[in-house]
Amino acid sequence: xxxxxxxxxxVSIDGKNILKGVNLTMKTGEIHAIMGxxxxxxxxxxxxxxxxxxxxxxxxxxxxxxxxxLELPVDERARAGLFLAMQYPAEIPGVTNAEFIRGAINARRxxxxxxxxxxxLKQLDKTMSVLDMTExxxxxxxxxxxxxxxxxxxxxxxxxxxxxxxxxxxxxxSGLDIDALKVVSRGVNQMRGPEFGSxxxxxxxxxxxxxxxxxxxxxxxxxxVKQGGPELAKRLEDEGYAxxxxxxxxxxxxxxxxx
Amino acid sequence: xxxxxxxxxxxxxxxKKTAEPTWFTELRTKSLEKASSLELPSFEKIRYQRxxxxxxxxxxxxxxxxxxxxxxxxxxxxxxxxxLGQNTLELKISSxxxxxxxxxxxxxxxxxxxxxxxxxxxxxxxxxxxxxxLTAQHVAHLTSGLFxxxxxxxxLKEAFxxxxxxxxxxxxxxxxxxxxxxxxxxxxxxLENLKTVGEQATTANIIVEVVAQENSHVKFASVDRLxxxxxxxxxxxxHLKKNAKIDWSMGMMNDGNIVGDFDSDLxxxxxxxxxxxxxxxxxxxxxxxxxxxxxIGKHTIGHILxxxxxxxxxxxxxxxxxxxxxxxxxxxxxxxxxxxxLSNKAKGDANPILLIDDNDVTAGHAxxxxxxxxxxxxxxMSRGLPKKxxxxxxxxxxxxxxxxxxxxxxIRAQLKATIERKLIDGQKDE
Lengths: 259, 430
Description:
The structure holds two protein chains of two kinds. Chain A is about 35% helix and about 30% strand. Chain A contains nine helices and twelve strands. In chain A, the strands form three sheets. Chain A has a six-stranded mixed beta sheet, with helices on both faces. In chain A, strands 2-1-4-5 form a four-stranded antiparallel beta sheet. In chain A, a hairpin with a 2-residue loop joins strand 1 and strand 2. Chain B has a domain of about 260 residues. Helices cover about 25% and strands about 40% of the residues of chain B. At the A-B interface, helix 2, strand 7 and helix 3 of A face helix 8 and helix 9 of B.
C-alpha cells in the first residue's frame, strides 16, 4: 500500500496565490474526487503535485510514502509512481504514440531489461480495445491532430499502460460525450485495485456516476472546505456550490457567479 | 593549349600513374594557375574563410591501410559502391541497371573509359571550374569520386547507394567528385553516405553535380557524418532541364566545421526542385548551410525546407535563397528555415533571402529561431522520461515535418537513427 499526502500546500502562479493551505491524504485502493467551482485551484493542485515549472510552491509539502517529492524533477516524480492525466495534453509531432508509450514504460525498467516489442504490442492492443481505440491511433503522432475526445482516451491509455501508483485525472470528462465518458470510465475502473489510487478532478457530478469515489472533497477559494462520501457529490449537483458556500459561511466569490 | 607539365611535377606524376586523359590534366593545371587569383566564395553570415579549408597538399596517389578496409563492410550487399579515401573497395551494380545501360564507375575508370561523357558534364553544367578558388582547387586536387550515367527512358526501381569513407587516419586532403547524369524521361534514386574514419585534422572538398535532363526525376538523399577534425567544403548542385525534377533530402549530421553549398538551377521551363535539409550541430562545431534555388525557366518551382537543432556551444546557420531571374514567368519560390536552440551558448541563424526580378511570380518565406517548447518537455517528463530523452523526442518532433516530407521510407528511418545517435553524443557535452 502507498500513501499520498498533501500538507498545508500553498501554491502561486505568476505571483498570484492560488492554493492557500490544502490538506489531503489518500491511499492506494482508494478513489478520491475533488469537486469545486471554476477558478478555485483544482488544476493548480494537480499541476503542483506533478511539478509543472510554472507553479511555485510557497509553503507545505507533498509526501509520497512519507517522502517529500517537491524537490524532485517531474520525471522522477513520475517514476516514483505519480501520473497526471492532463486537461490539455501537449502535441508532439514526429513521435508516434506507441513509440512514446513504450519509451515511458522502459524508463521505469532497468536499462538492460526493456519490455520486448512483442509483449508491449500485445498489451497495447488489449488496452486500446478496452478504450475502443482504433489500431491506427498507435502509429499516429502523439496527440497531433487528435480530437478532444481522442486526447482524453489517449491519456487513459497511457495511464493503463504505465500503471502508476497514483493517478490524478484533471477534468478528464470535459468535452466528452456520454459514450466517450463511459469508455474512459471503464478504463479507470479497470485500474481499480489495491495497488492503485486516483484523484479525480471534476466540476460535474456526472463522471462520478461512472467512477464512484470513496471520498469526495470540495474545494473553494484555494482550500478544501468539505469532505464526504459519494452522496456529497450528488448534493452539490442538486444544490450547487453557492448553497454549500453559504452554509459554511465562506466569503468566496465564485468565478461564474452573476454579479 | 599546351601546358608545360614540368612546372607541375606532382600533377605530371599523378597523371602518369592514373593514366588520366590529357584534357583533364590540362584542366588541372589551368585550375591551379587560376586558383590563387580567384576569390573564396562568400556566403551570407557564414564566416569560414580562416578555416583550414583550402587545399594545399600536392596531388598524390595514396592508398589506405588494409586493416581499415576490413572494418568498413556495410550491411548492404548489392547495388552500391564502397570507397575509402582514394580507393574503391566494392562496386556492385544490379542487373536491372546493367541491362538498361546505366554506367556507374569510380573516378579514374570514368576518366579512362568514358572520357568524352565526363568531359561533357564535368564542371560544365552545374558547377564551373573557375567559379571561385575552392572549385578551382577542387579540380587541381581531385583524386576520387563516382560517375553515374543513366541513359534516357530508363526508370530504375531500386535505389543506388554509395558509402564514401573519408580516410582521416592520415593527414590527407579528401577531394571527391560525384557526377550524376539522368537522361530524358528517366528516373533514378540515389543515397549517399559520407563518413569519416580516423581523427586526424584534414580538409575535405567535395562537389556533387546532378544533371537532370528533360522530364527526368532524380531522388537524391544523403546522410553526412564527417568527423570532428575534418574541415569541409561540400557543394551539391543540380542543373535541371525542362520539366525535370530533383528531390533533395539531406541530413547534415557532421561533427566538424563545414560549409554546405546546396544549389539548384531550374534552367528549363517547368523544372522543379524540392530541397529538404535537417541539420544538427553539437560540441563547438560550426555548420553553415547555404541553400539556393534559382528559377530561370518559366513555371519553375523551387521549394526549400530546412530545420536544424543546435546544442552546446555550436553554431548553425541556414541561408535560404530563392532567386527568380527576369523572364521566369509563373515561377514559384518558397522557403522555410527553422532553428531550435537547446543551449544558451549555442548560436543560430535563419536567413531568408528572396531575390525577385520578375513580377509574374509567387514567392514566400518563413524563418524562425526558437527554444524547446517547455509544455512539450513537461508533458513527456510527466510520463517518466528523463529530460534528455524528452528533449530528443521534442527535437525529433521539430525535425518531423522535414523527415515526413522525405520521399523514401528507408532513408527516413536511417536518418532518424543517425539523428538519435548524433543527439545522444551531442548531449554528453551539455
